Amino acid sequence: MHSGYVALVGRPNVGKSTLMNALIGEKISIVSSRAQTTRNRISGIYTEDRGQIVFVDTPGIHRGEGNLNRYMVETALASLKDVDVVAVLVEATREPGDQEHRIVEAVKASGRPAILVLNKVDVVKPADRLLPVLDAYSRLADFDEMIPVSALTGEGLDRLRELFYARLPEHPPFFPPDQLTEVTERFIAAETIREKIFELLRQEIPYSTAVEIESFDESDPAMLRIAAVVVVEREGQKGIIIGKGGGMMKEIGTRARHELEKFFATRVFLEIFVKVIPNWSKNPAELRRFGYE
Ligand code: GDP
Ligand code: MG
Question: Which of 8, 11, 13, 153 to mutate for ligand 1's pocket (most ligand atoms within 8 Å of CB)?
Fold first, then answer.
């Protein structure tokens, strides 16, 4: 199997998100964008018989307004050095401008194999309008491949996956292939709280405890506000989780908050409520609601 990292770079609006969704399709596995606070953020994972493609977003490189300062160039370069392939996404409808020049320069300097992906080819009419665009890009850099695609119609995407796999090293998947469900920031918050409950109350609390995130408010850049509900099956369990004078609840909240602050790299305001739903773990609808299929 071949597995590795592919950076998807391009200025805003070229269709990065659309392409990613189209490439991954049903197999989407979005990992928290804050999960990797360092150079690269995983934005999607695609797994199949041939292996695994881990798509990463390289934060520094998309900014191109004004002068791309040395720090940003260096950050962008450092992040590109870690990947196996760079896919430079541009619009097939127009010749390269300033932002494309800068991105291509950074990619060249990284020395990584680069594929030029000309997106939105569905709106290039007549088709020979593509020729001057291809010509302009080939004068800009010596790309490994140049491929017209449409993230919208799916044109060219099978071929694009082939081009990626051909450049990935022989390696087993980095992430479990069954990790196909969406792992969202809400899920991570819920799991962290659940983990703290088990850390503190392993003996007393059965596995029929679920955590639901009621709100996950990122509107304040200085403070992430999370409201969570811990669901148990009996009043007695509720009492245990709240503890004497609310002491246990406070301890669960403090531990979870500390961990979430580290994870999300921001201050966190965490509110936890406890709710009894009798026999929820035996009710299929409730099970689905709490993420158990
Ligand atoms: P991003 O900012 O690079 O992530 O770009 P988005 O994926 O958000 O796409 C920006 C816009 O371009 C959206 O309106 C998309 O629907 C549109 N778009 C993306 N890919 C295509 C394509 O292949 N063809 C056409 N016609 N539009 C596209
Ligand atoms: Mg986007």
Answer: 13
